[in-house]
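Re: duplicated header lines in exported structure tokens

Our pipeline writes sequence and tokens for each protein into one text file. With two proteins the header for the second block appears twice in some exports. Here is an export where it did not happen, for reference. First protein block:
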Amino acid sequence: MKIATYNINGINGRLPVLLRWLKEESPDIVCLQELKAPQERFPIKAINDAGYQAVWHGEKSWNGVAVLSKYEITEVTRELPGDKEDSHSRYLEVIINQILICCLYLPNGNPYPGPKFEYKMAWIKRLMKRAKALLKMEVPVIIIGDFNIIPTEQDVYKPEKYVENALFRIEARKAFKQLIGQGWMDSIRTLFKDQEVYTFWDYFRNAYGRNAGLRLDHILLSPIIAPRLSEGGIDRHVRGWEKSSDHAPVWIMLDDKK
């Protein structure tokens, strides 16, 4: 089973790119972020015509997450526990083929310092609490999406440029490390231990052409499902398509026999 995450950066404006990628790569499950569309403007007909069911949590102008699947989807929740006042569309939990999938779009946090960074760190704390609770359930869980965190210096083309950036602040990196320390597997880094792998390239200064990238999109596996990981990768070439997102799709393959 092929599971992917893709920050689409505007689903309606980049729908042709998404549909082309779905046709070429045929993932079984796709988690999308930054829909940038209200609930009623999600292109469900085009998604259905491409062979996918969908559950989505839209938001006007910003944010928004969705899960596409070739299989039946059961929605669990679209709220990350811990803050009833948080109205941002950033989280979606679903069950597909007996796997609990948590699709997220973690706050960017810039500029640092400031309220946006404080919101980011509070959101991470809520995520860590939820992640810990999910592990106690002892069921297969995947936490997947755009984390807006560069975990280590290995995950950014010029670490020195990002020291004061919320994506790379030491507080965010420590929190990500603590999250992994709960028992989650960072699947892409596990597969590409010492290799340069990026998932995001800015639109400015020919970042994609220079491979001046960042690794922001992650797929974390709970201990029960981690042994099923067989392969994975980044569809870097999609970033080079016309009118593409500044992120590339990231995917893993799970061995169903395990």
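Second protein block, exported in the same file:
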Amino acid sequence: MSAKWSIIKVLACFLLICSSVGYAQEVKTITIEPRQMFRDTIIITRYDTVWMEKEKVRIDSADISDKRPNRYDRRVHRYRKHWESLIPTHTKLQFAGNMGLISLGTGWDYGKRNQWETDIFFGILPKYQSKRTKITMTLKQNYMPWSIALGKEFSVEPLACGMYLNTVFGNEFWTHEPERYPKGYYGFSSKVRIHIFLGQRLTYDIPPRWRLGARAVTFFYEISTCDLYVVSAFTNKYLKPKDYLSLSFGLKTQLF
């Protein structure tokens, strides 16, 4: 009886092993070779690992690749760069300077060290003894050859120089001498003035945590004169520096 039972146990074990090997082989027959496709979802079975194929994504023009930019890409980049260069980089508020009592303007920084500036201003000239208040416009070119750091947040520009053209809107001002005057009576225009200036600047770099609408704020002053004042100073020896030199103050807000 025990021998018969032992034979039955051996047969049962043999059948179990065969069935297990067959199941494993069956699973392996449906196993997808992982080297032939992307690996995405993993299913762990009792006897083997099955790799499911990743869904293929359609590649279109929005695909990011390591390809070098072609002529079209470079042209678009230049196009956008040129338009972005027209965005003003700062604003300015200036008091006096023979360009109006108060002038508000905007401008652009450029150069390797942003040492060049081009500004355009619109100012208000009170009527004083005239009949009406006037509007002025100024085109200004600035140059700062040096900038000295004073710690982490402050810097000074010991020399700021340049020139600007100023005009006043109104029919009472003229570019060419009116016919009512003898020819050559006035050798200059009353509508356009040419100015030169020298000055200094102090800049405060706003810490990143405090920046709202500006990156830095610059206080500056300038001493200027114009073409008419220079001629008057040479032809009238009695004039003093205060008669042909003007002092102005301003505030620059650096946007970018």
